[in-house]
């Protein structure tokens, strides 16, 4: 029993060491423009980047063993069983979280997220209508379809590159849409979709700190205490890898419930620094994380980390695929950022003094 408590306490304590800016969405707290010059892939992938990537792979490989060890702890299994017995509340949690997020966005004249300004008044009322539909169990699938439609509207208005930050809304919409499905296999796709889209959103936003470091550095310069005394650029790149790693762990379903708890606690600490805007943006993520706490990996489909039973193969799967996902995402991210920069209208030169 004491050993089990030590393992769980260590996991939570480690999560509290996650740098707060790692989980803050920089676009909400700085004046950004895709016309700003991004770093090229060659500039971004330097010795420090490679070193942190290798370190992340090593930590993820070690977490595979931690996950296996936790499964053998009686106290941990009892907590898992207690949470699993409350799976029936998962949809209600998501209804409350998404409904609150939609109402907050409606009140702020935003489309789903704080920096996405709604261009037309009807979008706000459509969000209000979707929130209203979440009040009734029979209309929850319709609200899910509405949430997906709102995401598609965002794609058309703000572009794919920007809206990939918020792919989690499409996942939440799918989860709500399929929650009323009669077929277990279709209904069961909601949990994997939620894990994949929330994890992807964290990974994609993490790359922003690598390619557009000037945005996050603006926030750190205003709140230097967040860097804990580290060099700001080193801290920022480390925060990016922390966030990317957490997103990747969600995607492969490693340490599902402990990971959800850790991320939730970290998000709550960022609220103490960044206030109401953070609440508006992170409410649906909090709801998804509570769903992960209740559901674990889900029951309809085998999670990716369980594809291999042998510990050696599972460890290699987790570490190697981290590197693959990092490469697969950073290449198009840098290319799209460069393309947007080249397409942006040139900023006017300041007038010479005295004219």
Automatic annotation (TrEMBL):
The chain crosses the membrane at residues 48-66, 87-106, 118-136, 143-160, 232-252, 259-277, 313-335. Residues 1-24 form the signal peptide. Keywords: Membrane, Signal, Transmembrane, Transmembrane helix. It comes from the Bacteria. This is DoxX family membrane protein. It comes from Longimicrobium terrae.
